[in-house]
Specification:
The chain is an alpha/beta fold and 204 residues long. Helix content is 30%, strand content 23%. Strands 1, 2, 3, 4, 5, 6, 7, 8 and 9 form a nine-stranded mixed sheet that branches.
Length: 204
Amino acid sequence: MGFPIIIYGKSGSGKSRSLKNFGEEEIFLVNVERKFLPFRNKFKYVLENDKVDKIKDKLSKMPVKTAVIDDAGYILTNRYMREKGQVKNAFETYDNIGSDFWGLIEFIKTNLAKDIIVYILMHDETDDYGNTKLKMMGKVLEQKVCVEGMVTICLHCVTDDTGHHFITNSNGKDISKSPEGMFEFEIDNDLKMVDETIRNYYEI
C-alpha cells in the first residue's frame, strides 16, 4: 500500500521549491510540464511525461522510496486540451479524465509498496468567500473525483513576507489536514523534512 500525499498551493507559493533539500538520488521526479526547477539542484531520476500509464509504469520501477509528481494538475489540463475536440460529448471527456486521475491515486495506494510515498503537487483556487480547494478544471470533474478525500495528508503551500511555509491543518477555509501530533500548524517549506517526519510517525 503506497502513500499518496497532496501538496497544494498557488503558483509561486513554494510547491516545487520545497524539493530543494532532497539529494540528487533521493527522489524520483515526474516533471509533468517539463519545466525548470526554481533552484540549481538536479535529480538523477526524472520522468518528463504527462501520460498516466507511463507515470504508473515508472513509479512501479523507480529505484527510490519517494516520488514527486509536479504539477499533477497538468495531467488533467493537458489531456483535456488534447481531447476536447475529439469527443462529441464533453461529459465523456470529463469521465475519461476523472477515471484516469482517480486511477493514478488508486494505483499508488494499491500497487506500490507500503514504504513508498508519492507527493502529488497541485494548484489551488479560492472562491469569493475565501474558501480554498484543489483546482480541478471545473465542477463537473470535482463531482467525479474528490482527490483530498482519497488521502490522509494535504499540506497547503503559502507564502508571506517571512517566506514560504506549509499549513498542515485546516483553518476552516481550506482542505489542509494531517494526523494528530505529526506537525505543528505551520512548518518550514521543506519536503525532505516532511518526508522524514511522516516516515518516523508511521515507522515506514
